[in-house]
Amino acid sequence: MGLFDIFFKKKEKKTVQPRRDVFSLQINDIVTYDLEDYLVIGKLGYSDSGYKWIAYHLKGDKKNIWLAVEQDDELELGIYERIPTQITDVKDRLDINGIRYYLEEHGFARITEVVGQAGAVVGQQVEYWDFESDDEEHYLSVEKWGSDLEISYGYPISLKEISWLAGS
């Protein structure tokens, strides 16, 4: 490196990463919830009649969970974990693990985005049912993928309960 290079060297441009929010998490970001770190390993985007929501697949040391994010009248966040069940028919009321759930919403969504380990294909249609307990503290999400029913237990969380760091 000569004297000319020292004084007239072009400065390298620093790339500024856009600030992440709960709607723009990416694969390999770290989400901290309930004192545990989770790696974002998948993302699904859903759309039903113009209404959109996101589900992030999070891998922890002990278990995998899903973080659901939707902007309705206000920001709604939920943590979901798949549960085994013998349900073959979805009704307006379900009793699972001693909790009674009531149907809140039923519809057909189209998958609009698939990133990483999410288990779906863009354009795929999924039938869904959202259930809530009377106290609104327990959720059930039922999704019908082809002929398979997937059921997840969930509960609401606030934005203050999670944090995230951009991954590599």
Model description:
There is one protein chain. By secondary structure, the chain is mostly beta strands. It has one domain. Helix content is 4%, strand content 56%. It is built from one helix and eleven strands, in the order αβββββββββββ. The protein has an eight-stranded antiparallel barrel with strand order 2-3-4-5-10-9-8-7. The two termini are 32 Å apart.
Characteristics:
about 170 residues, mainly beta, 8-stranded antiparallel beta barrel, 1 helix, about 5% helix, about 55% strand, globular, DUF4178, DUF4178 domain-containing protein
Could you give the topology of this structure?
Blueprint lengths: L2 H6 L21 E4 L2 E13 L2 E9 L4 E8 L3 E8 L10 E4 L2 E18 L8 E9 L5 E7 L2 E10 L4 E4 L3
Antiparallel strand pairs: 1-2, 1-11, 2-3, 2-7, 3-4, 4-5, 5-10, 6-7, 7-8, 8-9, 9-10
- Report the average pLDDT across residues: 91
Shape: globular
The helicity comes to under 10%
Taken together, the total number of domains comes to: 1
Return the string of H and E elements.
HEEEEEEEEEEE
Largest sheet: 8 strands, antiparallel, barrel
Going across the biggest sheet, name each strand in turn: 2-3-4-5-10-9-8-7
Structural classification? mainly beta
Cα-based radius of gyration, to the nearest Å: 20 Å
Number of helices: 1
Low-confidence sequence ranges: none
Number of strands: 11
